[in-house]
UniProtKB/TrEMBL annotation:
Belongs to the DNA photolyase family. Residues 1-130 form the Photolyase/cryptochrome alpha/beta domain. Keywords: Chromophore, FAD, Flavoprotein. Its cofactor is FAD. It comes from the Archaea. This is DNA photolyase family protein. The keyword Amino-acid biosynthesis does not apply. Gene3D superfamilies: 1.25.40.80, DNA Cyclobutane Dipyrimidine Photolyase, subunit A, domain 3 (1.10.579.10), HUPs (3.40.50.620). InterPro entries: Crypto/Photolyase_FAD-like_sf (IPR036134), Crypto/Photolyase_N_sf (IPR036155), Cryptochr/Photolyase_FAD-bd (IPR005101), Cryptochrome/DNA_photolyase_1 (IPR002081), DNA_photolyase_1_CS_C (IPR018394), DNA_photolyase_N (IPR006050), Rossmann-like_a/b/a_fold (IPR014729).
Amino acid sequence: MQLHWHRRDLRASDNRGLATAAEAAEGEGGVVPVFVFDDGVLAHAGAARVRFMLDALARLRERYRERGSDLVVARGDPAEEIPRLAAEYDAERVVWNQDYSGLARTRDAAVRRALDDASVARESVHDAIHHEPGSITTNAGDPYSVYTYFWKKWRDREKADPYPAPEADSLADVTGGDLPDIGDLGFEQPTADVPEAGTEAARERLSSFCEDAIYRYDEDRDYPERDATSRLSTDLKWGTIGIREVYEATEEAAESADGEEADSVEEFQSQLAWREFYAHVLYFNPEVVTENYKSYENGIEWREDEEGLTAWKAGETGYPIVDAGMRQLREEAYMHNRMRMLVASFLTKDLLLDWREGYAHFREYLADHDTANDNGGWQWAASTGTDAQPYFRVFNPTTQGERYDPDATYIKEYVPELRDASAEEIHSWNELSPTERESAAPDYYDPIVDHAERREMAISMFEDARGDDEDD
Ligand SMILES: Cc1cc2nc3c(=O)[nH]c(=O)nc-3n(C[C@H](O)[C@H](O)[C@H](O)COP(=O)(O)OP(=O)(O)OC[C@H]3O[C@@H](n4cnc5c(N)ncnc54)[C@H](O)[C@@H]3O)c2cc1C
């Protein structure tokens, strides 16, 4: 018998670890699929993510039950639970897919030691990304810190095909326990609408995206009201769909495309490569979870501003596009990418608050929170990360709103106080007089900062951090 330990791979198909275990277990008692609720991991979770995870586990369990097996669940420290389950099922080997975050690697090292002590064989394989950390490097063998070079090598590298789902006769005939309720795990039901979980729902998102939107992705992806992106981030975070299956669908879409449409498919693939780039960054620099990737001569003097932080979190900054993004996060446990860039810029460059404050808030609310991508995105916006936005390029939230939501459709969807205001009023909100604001949208907020002033302050904050004055 073999044990497959599911973690962030809540699917049966295109699962390399499971396929590896199934191959060895065929005719040898089959694979026992297990999942351990780990309080160490739950301590960093948010309600929306836990909801999605529980729903995905329920779907996965159905899949196993349809094939005469079951998902065995346990709760506790995996370093105790995994050897215990291996002993209970008399498993010869435990297999799992690697997770690249520092916390997961520390946990996995403890599980490895415990299995070695119990004389149970174990194998961990690369699955979550196409090209494992260390496989795409500079010619000198170092990890890339510039995305463009990484992308070129990533694009040209051959990709593996999806792994087959295990046949029913390679799964063990076992009976799993009940799944806990969200309350049992210490979380309230999320107030946000969480996307439907499971491989079937992920496949539907993928196929409907590849039918049409993928060909317009390059042109439309920055416009939040166009619904032009795949919405696969939560599936990729939880592994309800495999990356090889996603990539294969994009390659099939590319076959019937040329010119701009083919470029658009490639643009989408390059976002998948960003995900892998950040996974590599995190793998080689686990400290980025709490520290700046870039070092500064004097350190950055972030401000403290409880009121500003509270207004930002609530979507009450008086900058319509920023507030729409922050409210989308609360309503959907998701935010459009351009809005993530914008609200992150607003927190760090307009409120001059530490990116770690924003990262913690995103981690609490996003269903797709992924340490590598979330951290990469925050450090990009804060100009502290790998291949980050230069510190002197500060997004103007007013012109960004005008450009990417010209009719204010997205803003009005999430900020009901602005529904009766015209797009023109919304896009000049910070320039209107108090009387004009009162008449356009009496319940909406005054801008909490002056963007032009804060932009100057942000630039000098970074120049001080860089020690630029001292060099003059
Ligand atoms: C401040 C900030 C925080 C972010 N936090 C997260 C996070 O916690 N989890 C997360 O998955 N993404 C995060 N992103 C990246 C990006 O915003 C989301 O992946 C994207 O909005 C998800 O929507 P989608 O699936 O429709 O994306 P699509 O545009 O359809 O992209 C397809 C997939 O590519 C990957 N991807 C796309 N853009 C990026 C990117 N910039 N960096 C890394 N991977 C990318 C994702 O897996 C995504 O699902 C963050 C970006 C910023 C600026």
